[in-house]
Design goal:
Helix content: 25-40%
Oligomer: single chain
Strand order of the largest sheet: 3-2-1-4-5-10-11
Site (Important for substrate specificity): 107
Pathway: Carbohydrate degradation; glycolysis; D-glyceraldehyde 3-phosphate and glycerone phosphate from D-glucose: step 3/4
Number of helices: 12
Catalytic activity: beta-D-fructose 6-phosphate + ATP = beta-D-fructose 1,6-bisphosphate + ADP + H(+)
Bound molecules: 6-O-phosphono-beta-D-fructofuranose
Enzyme class: transferase
Structural class: alpha/beta
Keywords: ATP-binding, Cytoplasm, Glycolysis, Kinase, Magnesium, Metal-binding, Nucleotide-binding, Transferase
Length: 352
C-alpha cells in the first residue's frame, strides 16, 4: 500500500487543517498510510514527522493555522548555502514515502516540484488568502479573510458615523486587490483602493470632501499593495524588478497623513494585518479546503503527479505546477466587480 507524506509550507491560512484532514481521511480509506512532515520542508531537513491516523485529524476542521506547523524559508536545495536534498531523500527513503502532498503557495510549490525527478512524486494544493493564483478561480482562506475585512469595516463605521471621521482600513492581499475589493464591497466601503488601479490622491480628497458635506463621514478600504498614480512603484514594475517579496503594509498610515492636510474631518487608520489570517475558517473555506484535500488524494491514487489542485468554475481539476509558479492573478480590468463598485458610486480613486 502507498505511504504518503503531507506538509504545509509558507504562511498560515484558514483552511489548512481542513485540507490536512480531507486528504488524510480520504487516503486512509484507500488503505494508504499517511505521515505528516512538521513545519514544512524544515521537517524534511530536521527529520521531524509523525504518523497521521484518523484520530490525529479528527476535530480540526474548524481550527485555524496548521496542526503540522509551517516555515517560510526552509529550502532543502539551498539550506544555509548548501544543497541538502540528498540527505532529505535519505530520510524520505527511511520513512518509505511513495509520494508527497505539499500544501502551500508559490515558494512551496516550486521547491516541492524539484523532488519529483529525485524519486518523490508530488501533488500540490494551492494555499493563499490573497486569491491571486493563476488557473484557480478561488483559493481557500480568501473567504475567511474577506469576512474579517467586512466585519472590521462594519465596526469602523460606528466610529466614522459617531465622530464624522474618515476611517481608513488597510487589508492584506500582497500585489493583488481581491481582499480589499470583495471585503470593501461586503463591508460597504465608500472608497476602495487596489494595486490594479493606481489611485489619484486629488480624487480621493475630492470624494472625502463631498462626503463631508453630504454624509458626514467616509470609509476607505485600501489594499496593502495599492499605490498612488504618481508615487511609489507600480505593482508590475515591482514584480519585474525584484523576485523577492517586499515588505508591504503601512499604506493606510501614509494615506491618513496625506488626507489630514486637506480635510476638515479627523482621519484615522487601521492596519488589519494577520488578524485576517487567523482563527476559524468560514464554512465556505472549510468545504473548499476539504474538496481540495479529497481531490489531492484522488490525484495520488491516480498517479497524477507534478500537478496542483485547482478550482475551475465549481469543479476541482489540476494544472501543471510549473505553469502556476511565479505568476500572479490580479483583478482584471474588465472585472464585473469593478463595474458593480463604480455603478454604486463607490470610488476607486480615479477621476470620472
Ligand atoms: O500571501 C499571504 C499574505 O498574508 C499577504 O497578504 C501578506 O502580504 C503576506 O502574506 C504577509 O506575510 P508575513 O506573514 O510573512 O508577514
Amino acid at each position: 500500500s502507498l505511504h504518503v507524506g503531507v506538509l504545509t509550507g509558507g504562511g498560515d491560512c484558514p483552511g489548512l487543517n481542513a485540507v490536512i484532514r480531507g486528504v488524510t481521511k480520504s487516503l486512509l480509506r484507500t488503505g494508504a498510510r499517511v505521515t505528516g512532515i512538521e513545519r514544512g520542508f524544515m521537517g524534511m531537513i530536521e527529520r521531524r514527522s509523525r504518523l497521521l491516523d484518523a484520530r490525529a485529524v479528527s476535530g480540526i476542521i474548524n481550527e485555524g493555522g496548521t496542526i503540522l506547523g509551517t516555515h517560510n524559508f526552509a529550502n532543502p536545495f539551498a539550506w544555509k548555502g548548501e544543497d541538502v536534498s540528498p540527505r532529505v531523500m535519505e530520510y524520505v527513503k527511511e520513512l518509505g514515502l511513495d509520494a508527497l502532498v505539499a500544501i502551500g503557495g508559490d515558494g512551496t510549490m516550486s521547491i516541492a516540484n524539484r523532488f519529483t525527478p529525485l524519486g518523490l512524486p508530488v501533488v500540490g494544493v494551492p494555499k493563499t488568502i490573497d486569491n491571486d493564483l493563476m488557473y484557480t478561480d478561488r483559493t481557500f482562506g480568501f473567504d475567511s479573510a474577506v469576512s474579517i475585512v467586512a466585519e472590521a469595516l462594519a465596526r469602523l463605521e460606528t466610529t466614522a458615523r459617531s465622530h464624522g471621521r474618515v476611517m481608513v482600513l488597510e487589508t492584506m492581499g500582497r500585489y493583488a486587490g481581491w481582499i480589499a475589493l470583495e471585503g470593501g464591497l461586503a463591508g460597504g466601503a465608500d472608497i476602495i483602493l487596489i494595486p490594479e488601479r493606481p489611485y489619484d490622491l486629488q480624487e480621493v480628497i475630492r470624494v472625502c470632501k463631498e462626503r463631508e458635506k453630504k454624509q458626514g463621514y467616509t470609509i476607505i478600504c485600501i489594499a496593502e499593495g495599492a499605490r498612488p498614480v504618481d508615487g511609489g512603484m507600480t505593482v508590475q514594475a515591482h514584480l519585474e524588478n525584484s523576485p523577492d517579496p517586499i515588505r508591504l503594509g503601512g499604506v493606510a498610515n501614509v494615506l491618513r497623513e496625506q488626507l489630514k492636510e486637506h480635510l476638515e474631518s479627523e482621519v484615522r487608520s487601521t492596519q488589519l494585518g494577520h488578524v485576517q489570517r487567523g482563527g476559524t475558517p468560514t464554512p465556505y473555506d472549510r468545504v473548499l479546503a476539504t474538496r481540495f484535500g479529497w481531490y489531492a488524494a484522488k490525484m495520488v491514487a491516480n498517479g497524477e503527479f507534478g500537478r496542483m489542485v485547482a478550482l475551475k468554475g465549481d469543479e476541482c481539476t489540476s494544472v501543471p505546477i510549473e505553469e502556476v509558479a511565479n505568476r500572479t492573478r490580479n483583478v482584471p480590468d474588465d472585472s464585473t466587480l469593478l463595474d458593480v463598485a463604480t455603478s454604486l458610486g463607490i470610488s476607486l480613486g480615479q477621476p470620472a
